């Protein structure tokens, strides 16, 4: 069996592709398709000079400091805010952490539900306006009853202090 091979030839027309004229090569007498060359890949040191080496130097410095027993110069103690210290101390004093966590989760769900209820009431016609008028009226009545005259103000301040002492404790 004799096999015959036929030469494969590609012919192209001189039409414009993507609005660009076809390239003509001086070396090739017939038209051929060539791809443009890609730019060289960026070198890592051009984008971020010395980032990898700085990290390695930092690790080496820490290893040397740990081996000698000295503290690294860059390591600084960060001060924890007072409110976090107080919260951690209060959490450590709690005996039944499961109950406190459950109450916190229930409070979150109740807050979420009440926000949804308030937004639903706010969408009803006339109800937000009526509630606003009731709130303005009660604020005016409270100010007239407790804030305008001096003896009433002093009684309100004393009542607030007594309630504060009752909740917090005598301090």
Automatic annotation (TrEMBL):
UniProt keyword list: Membrane, Transmembrane, Transmembrane helix
Residues of the region (Disordered) are 1-21
Q: What is its main location?
A: membrane
Q: How does it sit in the membrane?
A: Multi-pass membrane protein
Keyword Transmembrane helix on entry:
yes
Q: Which domain of life is it from?
A: Eukaryota
Which segments cross the bilayer?
98-120, 126-144
What the entry lists under Pfam families is as follows: CAAD (PF14159)
Provide the Gene Ontology terms for cellular component: chloroplast thylakoid membrane
Tell me where in this chain the Cyanobacterial aminoacyl-tRNA synthetase CAAD domain is found.
89-169
Q: Where in the cell is it found?
A: Membrane
The UniProt regions of compositional bias labelled Low complexity, in chain numbering, are: 1-17
Name of the protein in question: Cyanobacterial aminoacyl-tRNA synthetase CAAD domain-containing protein
Which organism is the protein's source?
Answer: Vitis rotundifolia
